[in-house]
């Protein structure tokens, strides 16, 4: 049994939409006020404010005459917004995210409802303060016996409404054992290159819609701020962005599902995408590939279906090593797509050779159950003190392996 989110589009009635928009506005207001209070408390008094303190503040805000409208919506989404803010601070202090930012109305918004704020009756969803069920377009049916634990309602910048139903799905079961393993190297010209020699084309979703997006953004810039025509132009830009996002997500889901179904072990490189996008010439293309999302989908799908995901350290020279004899080249510019090994004479395709090296490292890890380290290289802790986030490795480099077994 695993937690799974089912996302659907729904069409609220005018009354429901008015309630939901007020709820989103209140969630945004409470979140921003709590963020401002926590920031000021630290700057002025060096005082730490947590969830409990902001929850007490919310009670006081509801009693103020100017903020009495906070009591007209369900209190659960407001409390959940404070919890999300507290989690954002935890991620910031642990180095996993940036400092929390204020929410903006133009970005839409979301509201989370727990079990006390919604009813699930005969396949119909009733939210708090609403007497009518949501008109959901069931693009796929929920598994039988599924009881939602959390409901998240989101308004997209284009004006579309989506509901995400989080529930325990007992239909997810491990797949039959497979004897096949694969190493996957990611790229720009080809999105994924496997150790079997298969190259998956990069659809370049942003490039396909770039001209439409550019014209729409130019039209938006010419509209007067605050006018209705500007709002129409803004929604047009948002719709193009959502088209790109949906196409990219659908393509990645199909690719990762196929890789997980066909292979027992999947080996990938743990790239530092945040550091790689600092290259101004490749940043747009790297972001369009969504390598981080690809690895993330492989991660949780391997856990779902009993597969093993091996993440090889980003400093492993997968492109420079000869997969036949193990000879390491001194340098390998990005424009070199094929190279000859000076030791054994083997002609290598850069990406396929890298995928084969990744697979070899993955086999070593799964066979011995331990990490692998190249001879004559320093530890990983020493590397963190001596280098920054660059793809080219220094003279001494360690190799760290992370193995994520299926549950």
Describe the overall structure.
It contains 11 helices and 15 strands. With 407 residues, the chain is an alpha+beta fold. The strands form 4 sheets. The chain has a 6-stranded mixed beta sheet with strand order 10-9-8-11-12-15. A 5-stranded antiparallel beta sheet has the order 2-6-7-1-5. A two-stranded antiparallel sheet has the order 3-4. Strand 8 (181-186) and strand 9 (190-194) form a beta hairpin. Helix 2 (51-63) packs antiparallel against helix 3 and helix 5 (210-222) packs antiparallel against helix 6. The longest helix is centred in the middle third of the chain and has 35 residues, at 228-262. The chain is globular. The model is unreliable at 371-400 (pLDDT under 50).
Question: How much helical structure, as a percent, in the residues?
Answer: 40-55%
> Taking all residues together, what is the mean pLDDT?
87
What's the alpha carbon Rg, rounded to whole Å? 25 Å
Main sheet specs = 6 strands, mixed
Q: Tell how many strands the DSSP assignment holds.
A: 15
Order of helices and strands: EHHHEEEEEEEEEHHHEHHHEEEHHE
**What is the 3D shape?**
globular
Please state how the strands of the largest beta sheet are arranged side by side: 10-9-8-11-12-15
List keywords for this structure.
407 residues, alpha+beta, six-stranded mixed β-sheet, five-stranded antiparallel β-sheet, 11 helices, 15 strands, 19% strand, globular
Care to give the gist of this entry?
The chain is of the alpha+beta class.
């Amino acid at each position: 049994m695993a937690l799974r989110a089912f996302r659907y589009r729904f069409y609220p009635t005018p009354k429901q939409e008015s309630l939901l928009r007020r709820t989103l506005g209140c969630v945004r207001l409470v979140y921003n006020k709590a963020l401002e209070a926590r920031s000021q408390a630290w700057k002025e008094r060096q005082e730490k404010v947590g969830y409990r303190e902001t929850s007490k503040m919310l009670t006081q805000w509801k009693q103020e005459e100017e903020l009495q409208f906070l009591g007209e919506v369900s209190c659960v989404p407001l409390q959940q917004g404070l919890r999300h803010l507290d989690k954002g601070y935890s991620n910031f202090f642990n180095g996993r995210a940036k400092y929390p930012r204020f929410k903006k109305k133009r970005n839409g918004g979301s509201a989370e409802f727990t079990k006390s704020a919604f009813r699930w009756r005969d396949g119909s969803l009733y939210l708090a303060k609403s007497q009518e069920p949501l008109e959901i377009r069931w693009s796929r049916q929920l598994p039988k016996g599924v009881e939602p634990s959390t409901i998240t309602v989101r308004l997209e910048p284009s004006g579309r409404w989506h509901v995400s139903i989080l529930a325990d799905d007992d239909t997810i079961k491990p797949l039959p054992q497979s004897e096949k393993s694969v190493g996957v190297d990611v790229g720009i010209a080809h999105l994924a290159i496997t150790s079997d020699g298969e190259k998956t084309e990069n659809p370049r979703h942003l490039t396909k819609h770039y001209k439409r997006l550019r014209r729409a953004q130019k039209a938006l810039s010419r509209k007067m701020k605050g006018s209705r025509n500007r709002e129409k132009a803004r929604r047009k830009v948002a719709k193009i962005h959502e088209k790109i996002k949906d196409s990219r997500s659908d393509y990645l889901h199909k690719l990762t599902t196929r890789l997980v179904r066909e292979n027992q072990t999947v080996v990938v490189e743990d790239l530092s995408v945040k550091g790689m996008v600092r290259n101004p010439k490749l940043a747009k293309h790297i972001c369009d590939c969504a390598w981080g999302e690809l690895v993330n989908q492989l991660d949780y799908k391997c856990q779902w279906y009993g597969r093993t995901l091996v993440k090889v350290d980003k400093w492993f020279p997968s492109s420079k090593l000869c997969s036949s004899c193990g000879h390491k080249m001194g340098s390998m510019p990005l424009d070199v797509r094929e190279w000859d090994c000076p030791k054994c004479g083997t002609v290598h395709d850069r990406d396929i050779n890298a995928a084969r090296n990744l697979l070899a490292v993955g086999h070593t890890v799964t066979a011995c159950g331990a990490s692998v380290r190249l001879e004559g290289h320093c530890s990983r802790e020493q590397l963190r003190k001596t280098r920054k986030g660059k793809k080219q490795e220094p003279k001494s480099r360690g190799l760290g392996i992370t193995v994520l077994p299926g549950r």
